[in-house]
């Protein structure tokens, strides 16, 4: 079997059918591709949708478990996978029809550990068609070189396919019970890879939703998101310390890359702090703690990617904590009156 596609889902009844429709309309035979659905304790109608697809397609398998989170679900998927290659996709995203044979061809022909491809960020739910894109001058490089050359690459696991043998040899697992559980995993797995290729083909659809967890205004939820951003910064800091002790190529450049990503997460944390009803003394303590691991002020942030004037102004305000405190309550009032929109 060539490919195992792992699809964890939790209460995804609004998205799962679209995702599975895209996966079952690929130019791969059922003997070459298996789809492993991990039902992570759903309480909605998602399991019914999964079973309906399983009954129609002999290469679909459903594994049910108590809610353990996305990282644990993906790790179960690794254990269950039988394909030469493994691909992880989120249940609320989807693929263009008849496209997976393209990356598989390059994976096999070039004996790759990892192959990445592009995504289209959209709010449209029916972009199944694919227009052939030119593939020219594609090189095979090490994961170390890839992290330096593509320093703005995303850290989610849905934009690349892994060789299963390579993944098992690394013995790496997704973080369990963590926010952005694939962030640290992606960096570590790329550092282990000797043969990586990136194809500039847009076959993945990342669905933006106004009702996503990042737009949730519930105070308990916002408090958790802020804690998750802080946790991610600390986990990145631990990763930096681990890398700095190893004798690897491009150490300084890779650490700079990780610091950039950590700082970006703290930048977006500030918008959650504005929406969260938390006191200034508590925010002050958060910022003091972040100073200790050198992710605040946001010195590694403004650059060639995040250079929009609005971002520069907000970063300036965030970097000067007393100015931020002065603006905090007016910003909260304007947000509550829907005069401004926060990330």
UniProtKB/TrEMBL annotation:
The keyword Transmembrane helix does not apply. Gene3D superfamilies: Spore Coat Polysaccharide Biosynthesis Protein SpsA, Chain A (3.90.550.10). Its EC number is 2.4.-.-. Residues 4-132 form the Glycosyltransferase 2-like domain. The keyword Mitochondrion does not apply. It is an enzyme of class 2 (transferase). Keywords: Glycosyltransferase, Transferase. GO terms for molecular function: hexosyltransferase activity. This is Glycosyltransferase.
